[in-house]
Amino acid sequence: MNPPDVLPAAVVLLADFCVSFIERTATGAVPPSDGHDVAAGQVAYYRRRASEYDVTAYGDVDAARARITRVVAALRPAGNVLEIACGTGLWTSALAGVASTVTAIDAAPEAVDIARGRVQAANVRFEVADVFCWAAAARFDTVFFAFWLSHVPASRFGQFWRQLRGLVTGHGRVLFVDEHPDACGKEAYAAGSDEIIQRRLGDGSEHRLVKVFVHPGQTSARLHQLGWQGCIRRDGNDWVIGEARPANRSGRTPGTSKIQ
Ligand SMILES: C[S@@+](CC[C@H](N)C(=O)[O-])C[C@H]1O[C@@H](n2cnc3c(N)ncnc32)[C@H](O)[C@@H]1O
Description:
By secondary structure, this protein is α/β, with parallel strands linked by helices. It has a single domain, classed as Vaccinia Virus protein VP39 (Rossmann fold). Helices cover about 35% and strands about 25% of the residues. The chain contains seven helices and ten strands. The strands form two sheets. Strands 3-2-1-4-5-10-9 form a seven-stranded mixed beta sheet, sandwiched between helices. Strands 6-7-8 form a three-stranded antiparallel beta sheet. α1 packs antiparallel against α6. The longest helix has 23 residues. It starts with 7 loop residues before the first helix and ends in a 14-residue tail after the last strand. About 35% of the residues are buried. The structure holds S-adenosylmethionine.
């Protein structure tokens, strides 16, 4: 286990990131997806969905647990792990079994309550926090997120990865799981937008979220432009699993850290 590094610079990066939160860019039929409205709306949606999330997101939760365990083993998270957008803790549980410590954050307190009940391992700490405005006290050996990247607006993708650069240790890795564009047929996109979707919950309430499916080639190329070496591959027809490291620290070439 690598002791966490003290991280004053990350606070500056995060301040910059949060200022950029209010940027507005788009024009046209759909409001900009990087404003407070959609970001806050996503949190409101997941707060309301928390109690039904596991079944509506994963269907067969036992089968999902087995798949999650397999994917986490393949990604080999290690050391002190930060999990962003932990939700109800299905992934946190698997991470806790292989990590030294897990710091799991999510903006929806209802989801974190469920996660706290599910994962009571001594090496896990939960926090209700908006990742876009979250300042870490230390860097992490691994930063992990499942089904979060697709909720980051394209216009904030670069800022998010700059934030991540300040969260990983010198030899740290970012690991992620998300949905491949082949799974996009289930979503209803708002008129005039290629990233705002509309969803309805069991109680009939309607919500707007960001959903940018993760194309392995395009995402790897974007990460490369941002100074990361990314290795992203498919898992089944619907998921992608990825690993990224800052490009300028070890002379590694993309893909040399293969996912098993
Ligand atoms: C698709 S769910 C994924 C949950 C979990 N990682 C999983 O795969 O089961 C997205 C999660 O992002 C969280 N979220 C949304 N906006 C957030 C924000 N700004 N900061 C932190 N978490 C956020 C939601 O509360 C929700 O739990």
